[in-house]
Amino acid sequence: MFYSPLIRSLAVCLMLLLTGTALAAPAAASDPAIDQIRNSLAKRLGDIKLDSIEPSPVPGLYEVLIGARLYYVSADGRYFIQGNMNDLETGQDLTEEKVSAARRKLIDAVDEKDMIIFGSDNRKHTINVFTDVDCGYCRKLHSQIDQYNKEGIEVRYLAFPRAGVNSESGRKMAAVWCADDRKKAISEAKQGKNPGNKTCDNPVAEQYALGKVVGVTGTPALVLENGELIPGYIPPTRLKKLLDSKGLDKK
Q: How many whole angstroms separate alpha carbon 35 and alpha carbon 233?
């Protein structure tokens, strides 16, 4: 059926909803098409929360935001489109612009006390990194953490065990987040040392669900200050140049 793939692609948004971190729903709009779309999607998606429904730049087409995923729907709620909308006159990726803003809002809502932060004395940039202690390129990135800091880049880690929260990596990451000294624990875990089995009320599952919603498919995954998502490892000097080129300097 039409909506089966859609339901699968939006299941991760329901995961975030269950953790209580979804964006608040906006007030009801007066546009009758919005009510039509909301009712149509409710029949197909059930309890998935629609964070906003707004007219798109294309007449008769509406934007539906769910977490940090943007979709397009016809005014009658029948046709659902997944993909990016580009303005050929300006060259703008209109979808990514909206998605980055939503992604940034979700990341900004995470309390810093739930992250593992390697700060910089001369901070110019901040990156949020979804990481896995058993990921090779995550380990490579962390082995250069001092160099990132010297380049003025603060690194804020969020947990994303690629094999899932209940995997061996998930267990290790829970132990790291429960450690008395998280920075030491994550550094040792990324060197291959077993962090033990310490447990506590930790944010690993919530951050894993958040990663799914903001579009993380592998690690490391970097979320920049503007909400842009960049997958994969980038060496410190090259990352600094990239951040500078985007005008993301801390003022």
A: 43
| Residues whose CB is less than 8 angstroms from the CB of residue 153 and which lie 6 or more positions away in sequence, other chains included | 120, 123, 124, 125, 126, 127, 236, 239, 240, 243
Q: Does the residue 34 lie in any domain?
A: yes
Domain stop point among 108, 133, 162: 108
39 and 144: one domain?
Answer: no
Question: Measured between alpha carbons, how far is residue 85 from residues 92, 155, 219, 226, 230 in Å?
Answer: 9, 31, 27, 19, 19
Place of tokens 């429960």: 178
Structural domain range at position 193: 112-245
Cis peptide before 220 (omega within 30 of 0): yes
Binned at pLDDT 50, 70 and 90, residue 47 comes out as confident
Query: Do the strands 125-131 and 153-159 form a parallel or antiparallel pair, or are they unpaired?
Result: parallel
**Residues with catalytic function:** 132, 135, 138, 162
Calculate mean pLDDT across residues 123-142.
97
Rounded alpha-carbon distances, angstroms, from residue 34 to 56, 75, 95, 160: 12, 7, 19, 35
- What average pLDDT score do residues 179-198 get? 96
> Which residue among 58, 80, 108 closes a domain?
108
Cα separation, 183 vs 115, whole angstroms: 10
Q: Are residues 102 and 129 in the same domain?
A: no
> Which of helix, strand or coil describes residue 28?
coil
